[in-house]
Design goal:
Rossmann fold, six-stranded parallel sheet, 16 helices
């Protein structure tokens, strides 16, 4: 059994949607991998790091926040094998570098260290690490992530849906494109006044993506009857299950887990071609050029001509999810990654 310390910036080590390793720990054990989760938010993490020979920093937050820089330094001093599992884009990497710069530039050092291995969730991310940050190609490995969709799989297919309901999900911030979502909805409503648009996700505390600012924007455009931002939901499954289609309007998104969840529910997806979206969806979705609102609206209009998927089409999407985005599928990928690492 290979023992691996997984450093996480989530309290208790995991359980958030980011944590593919957390959700896959039982399946990983079946692959001969014993994962030990270490939360970098407590001083005791410095002691908890010692038993394993390998240390995986799960996302940039594990390196940049709280005791992350010290854990990185300690891993180096104790000659552990170190890998970083990147879920981030260049914009977030730069924020991480800035966050560490005043104390210990762990993110910058990890990028420059020829002994550190780098897993990334998408090909675009690997290219960014190589071209923007000069990481050696032989230190890069593609490791697509997963989402915990166990609740979604409780819904039996085929699902009946509201063909006029379009749903998006994600933090209300610029990178996720809530403003693009509103504009796409506005243009679509000019031709399809029966359509309704719902966004699920928490708001930024202030600025143009705060709850008040989003509400004011919708109200000023006279769209309150058709566009709703419902905030963060404990279980968004019920809304997702009713959707006629799932929309991804992100300006930038490495490997959107919400698209995996849409596949698990057998939903049609329309998404901007960012990050790993095209690889994630394959032929199971409609992909349009990044930030091309006109193309997105046209894709929606085309969808409205045949809004309901057949039972076989829904099942095909779920099968794609089952093949690539379950804990079992991830554990096999991670085991192969560890073999490459060794």
């Amino acid at each position: 059994m290979k023992s691996i310390s997984v450093i996480s910036h989530h309290k208790a080590g995991g359980g958030k949607p980011l944590d593919s390793l957390w959700f896959s720990q039982d399946a990983c054990r079946q692959q001969g991998l014993a994962l030990r989760f270490v939360w970098n938010g407590h001083r005791s993490s410095l002691r908890e790091l010692f038993p394993a020979r390998r240390a995986v920093f799960d996302s940039i937050g594990a390196l940049a926040f709280w005791y992350g820089p010290k854990l990185h330094m300690l891993s180096k001093l104790s000659r552990k094998k170190i890998a970083v599992y990147w879920h981030e884009t260049e914009w977030e990497i730069e924020l991480g570098i800035q966050a560490c710069s005043k104390l210990y530039p762990a993110v910058h050092y990890a990028l420059r260290d020829p002994q550190v291995k780098h897993f990334h969730v998408c090909k675009v991310g690997l290219e960014t690490l190589e071209k923007r940050y000069a990481v050696r190609p032989e230190n890069l490995y593609l490791l697509p992530n997963i989402s915990d969709s166990s609740r979604l799989l409780q819904h039996k297919l085929p699902l009946e849906s509201d063909p006029n309901l379009y749903v998006a999900c994600g933090r209300v911030k610029g990178r996720k494109g809530p403003d693009l979502f509103i504009e796409i909805a506005r243009r679509t409503l000019e031709h399809s006044p029966q359509a309704r648009f719902v966004w699920i996700g928490g708001f930024e505390p202030e600025g143009e993506f705060s709850e008040a600012a989003i509400a004011a924007s919708i109200r000023q455009q006279g769209l309150c009857h058709a566009i709703t931002f419902v905030g963060e939901q404990t279980d968004p499954t019920q809304i997702l299950a009713q959707a006629g289609a799932f929309l991804l309007t992100s300006r930038d998104d490495p490997m959107p887990k919400v698209l995996m969840e849409a596949l698990a529910l057998g939903k049609p997806c329309i998404a901007f071609d960012v990050g790993g979206v095209s690889d994630l969806l394959g032929s199971s979705g409609t992909i349009v050029p990044p930030e091309d609102i006109s193309a997105f609206v046209q894709a929606l209009q085309q969808h409205q001509k045949t809004p309901s998927l057949s039972a076989s089409e829904q099942q095909r999407r779920r099968e794609r999810y089952a093949q690539h985005y379950t804990p079992e599928a991830f554990s096999r990928r991670f085991a192969a990654a560890v073999d490459w690492w060794d």
